[in-house]
Amino acid sequence: MKRLLVVFFLLLPLLAACGGATTQAPTAAAPAAATTAPSAATAAPVPTAQGLVSATAAPAASPAAGGDLEVDRSKLSSELFFFNWSDYIDPAILEAFETEYGVKVTVDTFDANEDMLAKVRAGNSGYDLVTPSDYAVDIMWREGLIQELDKSLLPNVRHMDPGLLNKYFDEGNKFSLPYMYGITGIAYNKEFFPNGIDSWAAILEPANIEQFRGQFSMLDDERETPGAALKLLGKSLNETDPTVLNQARDILLAQKPFIAAYNSSDVNRKLSSGEYVMAHSWSGSAMQARNGLGDEFPGNPNINFVIPKEGGMIWMDNMVVLKDSPNAYTAHVFMNFLMRPEIAAQNTAYIGYLSPNKDAVPLLPQEVRDLYAEGFAPDAEVLKRLEWAVRNEQTTGFTQIWTEVKGQ
Questions:
Q1: Which pLDDT band, with edges at 50, 70 and 90, does 45 fall under?
Q2: What is the number of domains present in the chain?
């Protein structure tokens, strides 16, 4: 995947010329070989909150390095503790931040919001910055686990796509800002599915999966996996009718003997290696399986991704600062750093998810844009079939049916 960063580094001098300011490039090492940046006239569409659009527009001219933030280095801590999802940041970005500010970023990982919440609720976790998903942000601010953001330290928020701000879980973005977003569907190996996949039935119905026993997985998530079953039933993934939820439970119980695992941690690797022929997957995990992830594992060009005709989930992971963060000022500086368009583009190219940074999107390598157009990002038509998962007191039934499914 590091080969994708070449285009990004070639664009940096152009950004400096357009912005009228000196650009401090991150010190991450670029690949030795060079390629030519794609012409804007031939660039593939890129994703926004409204769907794929033509990638002919240049990013807004602005100081790329500081984002107008005058950093008081005397307030910076020597270390920052980042609690993040697995495979969810380019390590070179951490090195670049340390080179520029002298702050070492230590990353611990989690694979489910519920695991993260349990650790944070216990108190004194030692973490500063966390990346909860949409509904988890709502839980965290209501429980007093996160602090209000100091927007004066976050001038790069102007690069965010307005269509991805002010969402139901944090109206006004008092406590959070978008980190990445994505969609949930089915990743599959086209060698085994030469005609593609178009329905949740391909991964949920016993008649279709018996031949692939032990070669596919479902996400280990009490809303994602029941949500897929609800979609197959033609229902909203936010359906709370107990009768319908029980029907979804029964679908999952019938499927369970055939799956390899409920897996949210290394689906990318298992798809890439061929251990899985398909998987209930996040879009970025599917793209990592397709392209590989740096030096960690190679990509598999046979991996495709689809949102089934019945629909799927759209979600967003967000940056929040814990209430008891010992290094809150440094956490804000790091957030602002991550929102620089060139840094956000580098991070997106590496991890394969969707950037909420509107000025980073035009900087993405052509190969990433082509995959977005291939289905790894939603176009306007697919967006109509996507839903946000809402979690409230009416959705507690999902915990019950998930406990029943996992327990049998």
A1: low
A2: 2
Bridge partner residues of 377 (DSSP): none
Are residues 230 and 333 located together in one domain of the fold?
Answer: no
Largest CA distance in the chain: 64
Regarding whether 233 and 132 lie in a shared domain, the answer is no
Report the alpha-carbon distance of residue 359 to residue 345 in Å, rounded.
Answer: 9
Domain that holds residue 205: 182-314+383-407
Look up residue 63 and give its two tokens. 């100081």
Q: Compute, in degrees rounded to 10, the torsion defined by CA atoms 136, 139, 144, 145.
A: -30
**Contact of 345 with 355, CB cutoff 8 Å:** yes
pLDDT at 406: 96
Do 336 and 310 fall within a single domain?
A: no
Q: What is the CATH number of the domain that holds 308?
A: 3.40.190.10
Rounded to whole angstroms, the Cα distance separating 284 from 183 reads: 8
Here the tokens at position 372 are: 């977005």
CA trace torsion 262, 264, 267, 270 (10° rounding): -60
pLDDT tens profile 189-231: 999 999 999 999 999 999 999 999 999 999 999 999 999 999 9
Q: Give 321's contacts (C-beta < 8 A, 6+ positions apart).
A: 128, 129, 146, 147, 149, 328, 331, 332, 335
The answer to the question of residue 30 being in a domain is no
- For residue 9, the model assigns a pLDDT of 36
Q: Please indicate, yes or no, whether residues 87 and 172 belong to a single structural domain of this protein.
A: yes
In a domain, 38, yes or no: no
Q: Is residue 52 part of a domain?
A: no
With cut-offs at 50, 70 and 90, classify the pLDDT of residue 35.
very low
Q: Identify the pLDDT of residue 393.
A: 74
**388 and 259 co-located in one domain:** yes
Half-sphere exposure of 331 (CA within 13 A, CB side): 28
pTM value is 0.84
